[in-house]
Fold this protein.
Amino acid sequence: MANTAQAKKRAKQAEKSRIRNAGQRSNLRTFIKKVIAAVRAGDSEKAQAALKIAVPIIDSAVNKGIIHKNKASRSKSRLNAKVKAIAIA
């Protein structure tokens, strides 16, 4: 448990940021799942629209420090490959 005033303040700040980050991480995962769901349904237009919405959200998560930039690149690349594969098929 925090004993000093600054440690108590940092604990409060850490808790606030943990809650904020959890919500943003959940939102990120939701939009990624929407792309995957559209791909599984075989709906090319819906998948492309969902990808167009998901990419800026992924980039925003990187800027906020929620995910690493390499993870963001990997996620965008894999989602884009899935959407392209369904468009060709």
User: Anything to note?
Assistant: The chain has a mean pLDDT of 95. The first helix runs from residue 5 to 41.
